[in-house]
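INFO batch 0412 | record 1 of 1 | parsing
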Amino acid sequence: MGWVSSPSTPSAGRPESGAGVPAPPVTPALIVFSLLRFGLIVVLTAVLMAVAKVPLIIALTIAIILQLPLSMLLFGRQRERLNLALAARNADRRAERERLRSELRGDSR
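INFO prediction complete | emitting tokens
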């Protein structure tokens, strides 16, 4: 069953979206968005500890809670890139799964 573990991907390893256009890569978008959110937590924690003299664990808890709505407001463009990349990857996987099922059924395309 080697064909299951190594799916064919055109464009030198980059999957294509349904329209034949290369799908945006998920990993860079995920890394950027995660680092931005983590950086926001670090900044909020530092501000709470320096300005309000809040203990570390409480400042970290408050920062984690505050970064959730703030990241929605501040990082909209990066979140949209990640959503598009994930949606394209999901569509590619769905199309590939349907192609494999069709092949297993013996349907000719």
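INFO post-check: The chain has four helices and no strands.
INFO record closed
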